[in-house]
Amino acid sequence: MALSLREMSTTYGASPGGYLWAVLEPAAGITLLTMVFSLGFQAPSLGTNFPIFYATGMIPFLMFTEASGKTALSLLFSRPLLAYPRVTFLDAILARFFVATMTQLLVAYLLLTGIWLVFDTRTLPQLPVIALAFLLVACLSLGVGVMNAFLFTAVPLWQRAWSIATRPLFIISGVFFTFESVPQPYRDLLWFNPISHLIGLLRRGFYPGYDANFVSIPYVCGTSLGLLVLGLVFLRRHHRTMLDG
User: Which of 6, 14, 60, 102 is the least crowded, having the fewest Cβ atoms under 10 Å away?
Assistant: First the structure.
């Protein structure tokens, strides 16, 4: 709990302004995408409403990048505290992951609910599917974050390499297009991006006529669990050596 409170104060500050910016940033991105694409297209790739379409793509993507990124930096961020025997590397990881995930879930609730109430989105939210989509986003974020927490500490160059390698993710994850609209053979390659499955599942939860048959929940779960277990094994064996070095 103390680590979580520390994370909240250092990341978002003591005033509500930090949390307000956490909401305004994705809202501004959704607004910009809506304005740009509505000038060239009469309707988005799915449905009739631009804001809800881009929100269902951008929100899970930003939740993944924010939660996994915060988790990946947890050991470096809490290095001084890890010198105390009662503070474990798992405490540091879970504290950052919990705060980042809960914040992003709050942002998602405010933005999606606001768009659904203000606009005629012609969607029919299915809460179980939406909840499953966000649960899987959290699982993937934790798995990738824990694995990178080890790699960022063990191989400092990996942090820069990861930043460069993941820059195209916003384009290739299906934020502003549907998986089905991608031509072959690129569609088969896109399938291996687990974020595209998460976005497809969330859109299935909003659009009653959208099946998103390409979504594989076992694939996302297997990827998340595999990275999580591998990262924890490496951290348990080497975290003291890495931090002391």
Answer: 14
On average, the pLDDT of the chain sits at: 84
Tokens 């990946």 belong to which residue?
A: 72
pLDDT of residue 63: 93
What gap in Å lies between CA 199 and CA 52, rounded to an integer?
12
Q: How far apart, in whole angstroms, are the C-alpha atoms of residue 146 and residue 141? A: 8
CA neighbor of 55 nearest in space, from 129, 95, 107: 107
Bond from prior residue into 185 cis (ω within 30 degrees of 0): yes
Determine the Cα–Cα distance for residues 129 and 56; give it in Å rounded to an integer.
13
Q: Which helix (H) or strand (E) holds 41?
A: none
Q: Is the dihedral of CA 127, 11, 94, 230 positive or negative?
A: positive
| Half-sphere CA count of 182, side-chain side, radius 13 A | 19
CA pair distance 235, 197, nearest whole angstrom: 28
pLDDT bucket at 237, cuts 50 / 70 / 90: confident
DSSP H stretches of helix in 119-216: 127-154, 157-165, 169-172, 186-190, 194-206
How distant, in Å, are the alpha carbons of 89, 92, 120, 170, 240 from that of 83? 10, 12, 54, 37, 9
pLDDT of residue 86: 72
